[in-house]
Every structure is written in structure tokens, then in C-alpha cells.
Amino acid sequence: MLEVAVDSPESSSVGPNWLNRGLDWLKDHHRAVLLLGGALQVIVLVSMIVICLMPRVTGETVVLRVAPVDPRDLFRGEYVILGYEFSRIPSEGISEGISGPLRRGGDWQGRTVYVSLVPEDDGRHWRADRFSFEQPSGLSIRGTITGRRIEFGIESYFVQEGDGLKYERAVRDQALFARVAVAPDGKAALTGLVIE
User: Fold this and answer.
1) Which domain holds residue 20?
2) Bridge partners, residue 143, by sequence
3) What distance in Å separates the CA atoms of residue 89 and residue 49, rounded to the nearest whole number?
4) DSSP assignment letter at 133
5) Pairing, β 75-76 against β 79-81
6) Quick one: 95 and 115 in the same domain?
7) How many CB atoms lie within 10 A of CB 97?
8) Residue among 68, 88, 101, 98 nearest 150 (CA)
9) Would you call 190 exposed, middle or buried from its count of C-beta atoms within 10 A (0-12, 13-18, 19+)?
10) Which residues pair with 98 in a beta bridge?
11) Rounded distance, CA 60 to CA 81, Å?
């Protein structure tokens, strides 16, 4: 005699029922799921834009002197490569314990550094006052130690085609200045170049 076993709903495994219920729910709510997915993508993109714009919106704008960079490397495509006097680690070191020869710098590569900015005598331009690993009170710009330099994210600027020679001459004549917005947390955004 041949016996055939029939699975009752109670004897079936939980996994396939759960999966079927989930797929049924997705079919019933597919529009809401698509809208939620699209909304999350828009929120992520908007938040990325807001983070980049924060120094421009909440920051104080300062004008910094641009230090000459090797002219053979000044322009790469449509970008001006900029340097600043405070982009070099000072020979006396950085407060809070880092001093001495730069060859011992492996311990502090990638560390965040704050550079206090103070107005120059002319009242229009700003200069570095002191370097620190802790954010000081007052206006300061935040950078990261990379090699023997400090990078602030304001080292390149897009220029229109044909304007490169004008900026190259201004750098050689030490007449090029960077307009930089500095947020309260030290994050900086390059907003423009000024030839004086």
C-alpha cells in the first residue's frame, strides 16, 4: 500500500512563509518603498552639499596671502595650485609636545592641526599666529599633516580657460590672495582669488 504524506500548514517551515509574507507586503507597498528609497538618496545628496557649504554660510571670510608654488607645477589643467606660508610645518614644531626635526614626523602623520589666524597690520589680510593640536579660541583654520606639509582643502582653485597666465603672473609678483570662508569648527572653503 502506498502512503502519501501531505504537509499541513502547521508543519511547513517558518522561512518560506516569512519570505512569502515579506514579498506580499512589498508587492502591496511597492510605491511607498520606491518613494522612501528615492527620498533617502535625495537626503544623502542634500546633506553632502550642506556639509560643503557650511563654511560659506556660517563662516567668517578672510583674505590670505598666497605663497609661490613651483611654477612648473602651478597649473594642472584648469586648476591653480595654491600654497600658503602656514602650509609648512614650523621649524619650532607644533604646540602640545611635537617639536624637533621633521624626520620624527611618522608619529603625527594624518593628525589634525589648527592654525590660529590674526589680522595683519593693514586690517585686510590675515596671517598665521600659532599652530596647535587642540582648537584654540578665536578664528582658526583646520588642516591635516601630510608629509612635511599641512593641507587645508584650499590648495586648488578652478579657473576659466585663458585666465591662467594672469594668475601665474600675480603669484610671481606676490599679488595673489585667496578669499577663504572659515567655519567655527575650522573647516575652510576657498571662495575666490583676488589680485591686488
Assistant:
1) 15-56
2) 113
3) 31
4) S
5) antiparallel
6) yes
7) 8
8) 88
9) buried
10) 94
11) 23
Please list the helix, strand and coil fractions of the chain in percent, rounded to the nearest 5, in that order.
Answer: 35, 30, 35
**pLDDT digit string, tens, across residues 27-53:** 888 888 889 999 999 999 998 888 877
Strand partners, 189: 181
Enclosing H/E stretch for 138: none
Quote the pTM value.
Answer: 0.66
Amino acid at 44: V
- DSSP 3-state of 32: helix
52 or 4, greater pLDDT:
52
Residues 76, 160 within the same domain: yes
**Which of 56, 74, 107 delimits the end of a domain?**
56
CA distance linking residue 152 with residue 135, whole number of Å? 14
188/98 same-domain check: yes
How big is the CA angle at 72 (ends 71 and 74), to the nearest 5 degrees? 55
Distance separating alpha carbons of residues 40 and 46, to the nearest angstrom: 10
Question: Residue 116: which pLDDT band, with cuts at 50, 70 and 90?
Answer: very high
Supply the pLDDT for residue 165.
Answer: 77
Report the half-sphere exposure of 42 (CA within 13 A, side-chain side): 6
How many structural domains are present in the chain?
Answer: 2
Together in a domain, 24 and 88? no
- Residue 100, strand partner residues: none
Query: 151 CB contacts (<8 Å, ≥6 apart)?
Result: 87, 143, 144
Q: 576659466: which residue's cell?
A: 160
